[in-house]
Design a protein that fits this description.
The protein has one domain. About 85% of the residues lie in helices and about 0% in strands. Helix 1 packs parallel to helix 4.
């Protein structure tokens, strides 16, 4: 029956979203540790999962459309999850309501984690840009500004700096 297939599609979709949540948490750790290799790896895994998720969502949408098409007395409606839930009997609703809630909350949590990661990346990028600008400014400054006035005889400070190098 289509309801069993639809239930399996919902479960698979929720599972993928939960896996994406774990990946986004790992991405956050990689961003905080400035670990580009791990971040790249997690991003590739996310991309692969998103492709799989697209296929599962398409399957769920197709099954929802078939469910609505099979109802003879049903008026033409947009086949949404809410509309689907409204047409179920109490027993079937008890089975699907937790799945749809899990899906809803997983999507909301994922959206929040993605937003946090985007903000962290922006902050890191800004910090690196400021650091690079500071280094450029320091490298463009004349040597006399960095080590003091060269018109005076060399001081111990200059000698000490050379020893540290």
């Amino acid at each position: 029956m289509k309801l069993e297939q639809l239930e399996a599609a919902f479960k698979e979709e929720v599972s993928i979203y939960k896996s994406l949540l774990i990946l986004e948490t790992s991405k956050k750790e990689a961003i905080l540790r400035s670990n580009g290799k791990h971040l790249e790896n997690y991003t590739k895994q996310t991309s692969t999962m998103m492709n799989t998720l697209t296929n599962v969502e398409a399957k769920r949408t197709k099954l929802l459309n078939e469910f609505f098409a099979s109802e003879k007395d049903a008026p033409a409606v947009v086949p949404t999850v809410t509309e689907f839930l409204n047409r179920l009997d109490k027993v079937t609703l008890a089975k699907f309501k937790p799945l749809t809630n899990d899906l809803k909350f997983a999507v909301m949590d994922l959206k929040e984690k993605i937003t946090v990661n985007e903000e962290l990346l922006k902050s890191k990028l800004e910090m690196f840009t400021l650091s690079i600008d500071a280094l450029k400014t320091a490298s463009e400054a004349p040597v006399s500004e960095l080590y003091g006035d060269n018109s005076k005889s060399k001081s111990r400070t200059n000698v000490m700096l050379n020893m540290r190098a």
